[in-house]
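My current task is to audit a protein record that another person submitted. My question to you is simply how this chain folds and whether the tokens agree. This is what I was given:
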Amino acid sequence: MAQSLVGIDDLEIIYQPEPAHYQPSGDDLDLADQGKSFEVTCVISPSGRLSDCAAEDNDMVDQNFVRVAVKSVSKWVVGTQTRRGESAVGRLLTVTCWFRLEGSEGRTSVAAR
């Protein structure tokens, strides 16, 4: 049986780390990825931690950013029940990760949906 999705708006976010302040190491990688996004899908564990996080297919030039974002998302903790009182344990949550430049420093921005 396929795992069902749960929306972030239907969960309480207990812990979300500050967005990573990632700076690409290659020339123009930040410009090539500016404004791009990709999704990370995780399983909600019995403790509320996100486990088995994996990035969906994406067209990011700098795949190190993808690894940094997946690591960051895997640190999230969410409530184990939906706002309607249903169990969220074992369900899938998809988080959208964006790469945006702020000033001269490349930073990640993670927005959930």
Notes: The longest strand covers residues 92-102.
